[in-house]
TrEMBL record:
Gene3D superfamilies: Aspartate Aminotransferase, domain 1, Type I PLP-dependent aspartate aminotransferase-like (Major domain). This is 4-aminobutyrate aminotransferase. Its cofactor is pyridoxal 5'-phosphate. It comes from Meira miltonrushii. Keywords: Aminotransferase, Pyridoxal phosphate, Transferase. GO terms for biological process: gamma-aminobutyric acid catabolic process. GO terms for molecular function: 4-aminobutyrate:2-oxoglutarate transaminase activity; pyridoxal phosphate binding. It catalyses: 4-aminobutanoate + 2-oxoglutarate = succinate semialdehyde + L-glutamate. It holds the Pfam family Aminotran_3. PANTHER family: 4-AMINOBUTYRATE AMINOTRANSFERASE, MITOCHONDRIAL (PTHR43206:SF1), AMINOTRANSFERASE (PTHR43206). Belongs to the class-III pyridoxal-phosphate-dependent aminotransferase family. One of its GO terms (cellular component) is mitochondrion. InterPro entries: 4NH2But_aminotransferase_euk, Aminotrans_3, Aminotrans_3_PPA_site, PyrdxlP-dep_Trfase, PyrdxlP-dep_Trfase_major, PyrdxlP-dep_Trfase_small.
Length: 503
């Protein structure tokens, strides 16, 4: 396929002092370095504030039928391109939040537009199937050449359950875990008893068993009932919603940067592992833990990190204690400089399930054979995902592969992290704390002094044409796209340097 998509040009120096060169670099040179030929080269602001008058007016119209109070601004997606988001007032901003970490290869990527115009995509869109009952003739081909390609599927997980969204992916993974746990308890080939079949219809034991999913403080796994019960990031997500009485364990109380506090962090992680083990054993007499779910980086809860040793310890515990391990890669997939963040852990055996969504633009979970339902219709719904999203994921993965975008993300992330380290010792000293995300691509965050200071930085950056996001209580997180390059990073770093001087 032909497009205006371009290859990576030589990178800029990693020294933050060279930021001034950005101003003297010609627009033509900047355009040549971009993956997108028609991408803007600098922010351009029109309105005096963001959201501007047109954004505010449209939000008020939306408010007449739908919640609008979380709107940050209203977007003109037809004009947005590559790493740049354009709002309805005409403000052009460098987008480092990417629709809450969900855009992989930029706005209006020519390869995706070409796909969308194809007969195959149009007919898949117009004839949306009930996948579990009436799959398209090419469904196996689409999946095996995309989401289940040898270099895509997580090591050791050869089965795939497609779903609608990240929350759905975690919900259906929970169901798979519960069914597998009970099947193991019954024994191979043992069928359901009449008592089980009757009691489940009354939401009572033994058909509706008292089982649980263990999660961690600061975790976010979704907003549906099961996933919300495992979510622990913010009270606003959970207040007034009935929840399952499931256990929670503390995330390791690590210090940042991780490599500078290795001894203290090793103890903190072991302490957390001890609590996990004690909790699982204690729960056997209350609500046995069928599954443990963990994010590689607890994202919405403030970008909480841990070392590979912690996750290796979790795998050892779950296997020894008979608990299925789910790795929630909804936000981390493709964002840390590798396709799967958990691949950096060097686990002795694969997790039992890996959930995904966001940057892949499709959703679901990879799993081993143990988590395949024993009967049809047990883990099922009408759509079971969307063929068009599977096609979109396949094309995204092809672009990522062909243009070495994971390697690009790793290199650009290292460049940003090095410069932010310098900031913490210079004009950001006393204003930037707990910098984290080293060797995790562009999945980088730091804490402001207070929640108010965090919000002030984000607002000031937006007023300069750089769109950032926050998470946790006072963290600023970077979630740029995989096509984010060093010349984009220079725009971000220069503006951040100025903002840190102002606050």
């Amino acid at each position: 396929m032909q497009s205006s998509y371009r290859s990576i040009r030589p990178c800029l120096t990693s020294n933050v002092k060279t930021l001034t060169r950005l101003q003297s670099r010609s627009l033509a040179t900047a355009a040549q370095q971009s993956f997108f030929a028609d991408e803007p080269t600098a922010p351009h602001l029109v309105s005096q504030s963001i959201p501007g008058p047109s954004s505010s007016q449209i939000s008020q119209v939306i408010a007449s039928f739908q919640e609008e109070r979380a709107h940050q601004f209203v977007v003109d997606y037809e004009k947005s391109v590559g790493n740049w988001i354009v709002d309805v007032d005409g403000n052009t901003m460098l987008d480092m939040f990417a629709q809450i970490a969900s855009i992989a290869i930029g706005y209006n990527h020519p390869r995706l537009l070409e796909l969308a115009r194809s007969d195959e995509f149009i007919k898949a869109t117009m004839n949306r199937p009930a996948l579990g009952s009436f799959p398209p003739a090419k469904w196996a081909e689409w999946i095996e050449t995309g989401l289940l390609a040898n270099d895509v599927r997580p090591k050791g997980l050869d089965h795939l359950f497609t779903a609608m969204c990240g929350s759905c992916a975690n919900e259906t993974a929970f169901k798979a875990v519960f069914m597998a746990y009970r099947a193991r308890e019954r024994g191979e080939g043992v069928s359901f008893t009449p008592e089980e079949l009757d009691s489940c219809m009354r939401n009572q034991k033994p058909g509706a068993p008292d089982l649980s999913i263990l999660s961690f403080t600061k975790a976010f796994h979704g907003r549906l009932f099961g996933s919300l019960s495992a979510t622990r990031s913010k009270a606003v997500h959970k207040i007034d919603i009935p929840a399952f009485d499931w256990p929670v364990c503390p995330w390791p109380a690590v210090k940042y940067p991780l490599d500078k506090f290795a001894a203290e962090n090793a103890k903190a992680e072991q302490d957390a592992l001890n609590i996990v083990e004690q909790t699982i054993i204690k729960q056997r007499e209350i609500k046995p833990v069928a599954g443990l779910i963990v994010e590689p980086i607890a994202s919405e809860g403030g970008d909480q990190h841990a070392s590979p040793a912690f996750f290796q310890g979790l795998r050892e515990l779950t296997q020894r204690l008979g608990v299925f391990m789910i790795v929630d890669e909804v936000q981390t997939a493709m964002a840390t400089g590798s396709l799967w963040a958990h691949s950096k852990w060097n686990l002795p055996t694969p997790p039992d399930a890996v959930t995904f969504s966001k940057k892949l633009q499709a959703a679901g979970f990879y799993h081993n054979l143990d988590l395949k339902a024993s009967l049809p219709y047990r883990n099922f719904n009408t759509w079971l995902g969307d063929p068009t999203r599977a096609l979109q994921a396949r094309e995204i993965l092809r672009v990522v592969r062909e243009d070495n975008l994971l390697d690009n993300t790793a290199k650009v992330g290292a460049y940003i992290y090095e410069n932010l380290e310098n900031f913490t010792q210079s004009n950001g000293k006393g204003k930037m704390f707990n910098l984290r995300g080293k060797d995790q691509g562009t999945f980088i965050a730091w804490d402001a002094e207070t929640p108010e200071k965090r919000d002030e930085v984000i607002k000031k950056m937006r007023s300069k044409g750089v769109h950032l996001g926050g998470c946790g209580e006072q963290a600023i997180r970077l979630r740029p796209m995989l096509v984010f390059q060093k010349h984009h990073a220079d725009i971000f770093l220069e503006n951040l340097s100025n903002v840190l001087k102002e606050i």
